[in-house]
Amino acid sequence: MNQHPTTDHITSLIQEGEFFKLKEVLKRFEPHEVVELLEQEEEREQLIIFRLLPLSLATEVFEYLDLDIQKHFLANLSQDKIADILNEMSPDDRTALLEFLPDELVRELIQTLSEPERRVTLELLGYPEYSVGRLMTPDYIAIRESWTVQQVLDYIRRHGGQSETLSVLYVTDERGVLIDDIRIREFLLSPPERRVTELMDHRFVKLNTMQDQEEAIDVFRKNDRVALPVVNDEGVLFGIVTIDDILDIREEEDTEDIQKLGGSEALDEPYLATSIWSMVKKRAGWLVILLIGEMLTTSAMHHFEDDLQKAAVLGLFIPLIISAGGNAGSQATSLIIRAMSLGEFTLSDWWLVLRREIISGLLLGGILGVVGSLRIVLWATTIDPGYFGPYWQLIAVTVGFSLLGIVLWGALSGAMLPMLLKRLGLDPATASAPFVATLVDVTGLIIYFSVATFVLSGTLL
């Protein structure tokens, strides 16, 4: 098997002006190999290589390139070259590119499209930003129920090259209304004279043009499809959405949720492509909110200042107490938000979630309470008997029961807060782990000193 030339060899061909030889070499590359090559070259070399690619290969490569490189090519390639590439691109990939470009440039680029492609692109851009209509491509195979299997296969041979996928064919009536979808294997395994209507079962899954993209992700996951038809409110087939587009959206949604869980607004661009000032703006808001929240912790401590003066030993366990509650809350909110995003339960299952977290919180709190109490017991009986004073047993009980209560509260807060936000129509990921931890810090102090007042009343307090 012939190996492709190295990047150094490609660069040397450019420097020597051997463009005809380079053009012949590039014809043997696969699209992903050209992408890797371009990413290793400087901007000047990138343009030279791209200009030498055959149109079909250039189009495939362009669709896989990072947005920054795409913008660079659009700014430096000839108008004819740009027009050829945009006209060859699949409508959904072209729309995804245009969404990130300035309005003035979008208007100029749309004018370079052929009339049919311009009409399709404008139609796709007319749908709401996060709707299924923005993802769909009109490149599919539609057939009629009166056709025979042989007619269908002949039609595929003539028009299949234009389709995004041939795994599923869509049956429509004379008005374009979708009435069924049939897998290609049914036609390949059926006699040529058999009619489409005999293969139909009228059971199919569809998406709506105005449907939210997140809902489409759930539909794909539940039905294990590589493509799904998209219809309007009247049932007319407008296009299809393929699994590669859904995977891209899934990645974007997961990235956004993870960034929010860290206590930050979601970034609009990759980390290294985001300016420092933009990064600061995305993160500062939450940090200020969390700081204000932690100020409430100071207020809570001030409220129990007299107790701290009477029993200074209680202050030793404040970091332990609030960190245990915050950690329990962070665990719960991360688990619940992920489970909600995967559709593992709905809001109507809130009682089941609450019950599970009550049990989990009691068990986890009991474990941490025993560990915390044992630490005090071992220290007071072996390492430094006089360190906690004569009431070390009561201090151990205070810490143990405080941990039980705080971990239970942290688990319940972390689980219920995302569900409450979802019920209010807000993004559950807003209930980030730092936010829940801050909330539990404040309430944890109240629980701790309330238990201390009850247990130590008449002794240290």
From TrEMBL:
Name by which UniProt lists this protein: Magnesium transporter MgtE
Major localization listed first in the record, in broad terms: membrane
PANTHER family in the cross-refs: MAGNESIUM TRANSPORTER MGTE (PTHR43773)
Domain CBS: start-end pairs: 200-256
Complex formation: Homodimer.
Family, per entry: Belongs to the SLC41A transporter family.
Alphabetical UniProt keywords: CBS domain, Cell membrane, Magnesium, Membrane, Metal-binding, Transmembrane, Transmembrane helix, Transport
Membrane-related topology note: Multi-pass membrane protein
SUPFAM superfamilies membership: CBS-domain pair, MgtE membrane domain-like, MgtE N-terminal domain-like
InterPro entries: CBS_dom, CBS_dom_sf, Mg_transptr_MgtE_intracell_dom, MgtE_N_sf, MgtE_transporter, SLC41_membr_dom, SLC41_membr_dom_sf
Xref: Gene3D superfamilies: CBS-domain, MgtE N-terminal domain-like, SLC41 divalent cation transporters, integral membrane domain
